[in-house]
């Protein structure tokens, strides 16, 4: 409204009751002169008949000084309480050139955005055709009425009224965005709204103006983009198929629909591969579903149950066509399927109990169909359209990749776990040196199964090797490498090397494994702790390659960490390994473990090691119970790495189980040694094996005297087997060979190999030891 426009309010009798400043400037009459006078007295032409309203259109007004003022009237009725006529609101504009007035009026009335003008009391003065269409009433039915009297009590209407009052009070324009249903609209829309003050030339605020632009398309585009961005972070947070499906449902409800469900093929939930021929069936398993509110439809298919889709149903079509399918109430196939599922489809006005629209999208990843996601609306009023199908396909595509990743991870984890279980010892071999208990706990993290392993290896002389190791990395490659190293350790242990020498050979092996087929070095490394316990000397000799040191609990209950030199990890090469030897009282507990037990994110390793010692010191009924207690007390609820734990309680051979004799380096001593051996066996009640033992002793002692270096020692050990050991100071090891017919020698060790269960040699600090084992007589 320009500066020369005016507003006048008259009652039902035609008497002026309100007179604006614009009316004063236009006619020269002050308010106190005009209020209370008949409005017809202001007209130059003959007034209309009494009791009839003034006409809208061009008129000529009488100025205070007597000259005529051409003007254009817009007369609108004013209603009182109960809708009774209360008068009229008259808007007066000076009549300029016809084309200018017509152009301005048409521009205002035909604007594509809704435009309205209010006085300072939030009463309508003007509104264009777009605003009238949104309000559902013509301009004449709104002029002069307060805004709140023309709309429902809704958040949108209350918000606009607050903004009108604020602008009228502060004079500061404002702009905001609203997403709500228009007063006369059937669906929610987005609006960019601007409110600004209308001022006189003096600067006084005489009203407010509003312009509202429908930005629904832009708002929905931004909303779809926001959903896609949220999907990138909210879907696939875990490598779990079911949880990924649940995250998709949580994103879809209520943003996209009132109810959503995810159904997958059976093979997706297993560890197998997709079928060679595409699965054309429509029997799927429900893994996730969710409703927005109590008014949303419920489902007759429970979680974990199968859902059968007939060929004509939208989900079956989506699977068959490999694309999104829209369905609405009123379509025969849709109505039929809804009725079969106990969810009658309905059309018409929204906010009713039945489903009126459905979107079915297949879950496809890497060219393979994994399942289908179904989203329906029954509370939200808008039916699904093409842009919703595009959004659904984008969300389903991202979710399908996450589901497929989770499926592949589950398959690889299952394969790695199966492989690792096949490589780890299932039943530890019988031996008398230690009592053992072990635990292996695979990691549940996204990194996958690691390469932790443990082993207990019987050695000659009733000794036993205790091994734990950890291969760098996770997954099948690490598990395969673990199998290689585990086999290599057993092979090297059979050679009976010292712990530090064994780790040196194992280090060389890892370096060779790390070298690629073309000489390229791959990332490969491992840690290992190798310890040998001798129940005769009660000594524990250990060497480590980048591995945590073992813990020892003495019979008095005190726990300490063995000061083992950590050494470099396997695969570094060029650095030596050092062995540490300690003597242990009988009944001591040795704990070997991998770093997954003590290295936890956010926790100090020293404090965790202290917790481990405290857990080991607790009295338990058995080693099995103690192993469970250690894992329970030390590990966090969700360990990030694999854990291997090996507990060994030491035993010792009694003095009457071991006898030793020094042998003079004279061939004539052989006969005396045989007699001595026979007497020892008689004392042990082993007369049945005396003849064979005397032959073995005779051959081993003869070889030591003939080919070895003094001093020579003979030792007999009665354990689970009868062990005969002959040691000398020579480092040269004998080799078993087949003697020819006319050879005079070379049959001694062949005879020993034939008469005993097994035999071998081991290097010692002072030379070598040749040993042979015989089974004890039954009983």
Q: What about the largest sheet?
A: 6 strands, antiparallel
CA-CA gap between termini: 120 Å
Q: Which geometry do the CA atoms define?
A: rod-shaped
Low-confidence spans? 347-353, 517-522, 739-745
User: What's the overall average pLDDT, rounded?
Assistant: 82
Structural class: alpha+beta
Radius of gyration (CA) equals 48 Å
- Provide the spatial order of strands within the biggest beta sheet: 13-12-11-16-15-14
Strand content: 25-35%
Number of continuous helical runs: 18
Level of helix content?
A: 25-40%
- By DSSP, the count of extended strands is 31
Describe this structure in words.
- α11 packs parallel to α12 (476-494) and α12 (476-494) runs antiparallel to α13 (499-514).
- Helices cover 31% and strands 29% of the residues.
- β9 (188-199) and β10 (205-214) form a beta hairpin.
- The chain is α+β, with helices and mostly antiparallel strands and 779 residues long.
- It has 18 helices and 31 strands.
- It has a six-stranded antiparallel β-sheet with strand order 13-12-11-16-15-14, sandwiched between helices. A five-stranded antiparallel β-sheet has the order 2-1-5-4-3. Strands 7-6-10-9-8 form a five-stranded antiparallel β-sheet, with helices on both faces.
- The longest helix is centred in the middle third of the chain and has 38 residues, at 386-423.
- The model is unreliable at 347-353, 517-522 and 739-745 (pLDDT under 50).
